Amino acid sequence: MTMNNIEQIVSDALSKINSAAIAELEALKAEYLGKSGVITQILKSLSQYSIEEKKRIGAEANKAKSGIESALEKRFAALEKARVDEKLAKEKIDFSQAFYFPFAKGSLHPVMQAINDISRIFKALGFSVAEGPEIETDWYNFEALNIPASHPARDTQDTFYLDGMKNLLRTHTSPGQIHVMEKQKPPVKVIVPGRVYRNEASDASHSSIFHQVEGLAVDENITFADLKSTLASFVHQYFGSGLDIRFRPSHFQFTEPSAEMDMQCFFCKGKGCRVCKNSGWIETLGCGMVHPNVFRSVKYDPEKYTGFAFGMGLERITMLKYGIDDIRLFYENDLRFLKQF
Ligand code: DAH
Q1: Looking at the chain, which terminus has fewer C-beta neighbours within 10 angstroms, N or C?
Q2: What separation in Å is there between the alpha carbon of 17 and the centre of ligand 1?
Q3: Predicted confidence band at 188 (pLDDT cuts at 50, 70, 90)?
């Protein structure tokens, strides 16, 4: 083993290292410094040499080892820095551009737009718009709506309780009906849009926070026909004129009779498609005639007054209208989603 040999080995190693990609450096390290690497072999073979040569070759091999080691480290650091620099350059934000006048225009969140659109439609039908508190008591959220304690209907509501069950986060906008009727004598025509809470796991179609719009009309001689014409008018204006609606019997504690309203699929006009799961119809909302017990709890005379009520999920109808397939998109504030509205 001559000096020239070792020098040659080192110069080969350095030229390989300095042109290697980051992923190749491990292999080069093994090739030269690993258990059976070139330099390791030289160091292992020293025993066959004279004392003089051992010293000379040993020193030379050790120098080669540290030279190769530091070349590997340098190359790694340089490549890593280049990688990070390139990444940062791509992510660079030019603040002088981003915040230059005129400011980029923001827009209303799709849920807010839906509230505005729906409010506009119902205002034209003579409804006013009210709001209720998001923190409610058991009375407003359940009792006054004819959902007594320990009634199984409470289980479907998955309630978030506060202050040891004294208060709760409203599970629907229906308590808004009670607040309005407590303050106002008939006739009443009101919608109550707002945020509601359910203690349940979220997935593509469920969220523990979402929005509903409640509707209520009370007067003498209000009939199911009024409910039907009001909802037909809403569907025609919000989803498209000419769409049929139908009512299926259902159950809610605060209405009697109760119904689910379906509308003809606006996508295929009832022929059957992916949106309506080939049925031609889309479940749209729950509704019914106000239960006499609800009137009793707000001291309205159930012999004198009748009324209709309805409640719909805002995200649900917005998802239908725009073909959105995941409710979580509404809450992630991803501009790529929000900018489409
Ligand atoms: N509160 C009901 C819910 O959250 C929706 C609802 C159904 C409201 C029927 C109503 C109604 O006013 O009449 O599931």
Answers
A1: C
A2: 71
A3: very high
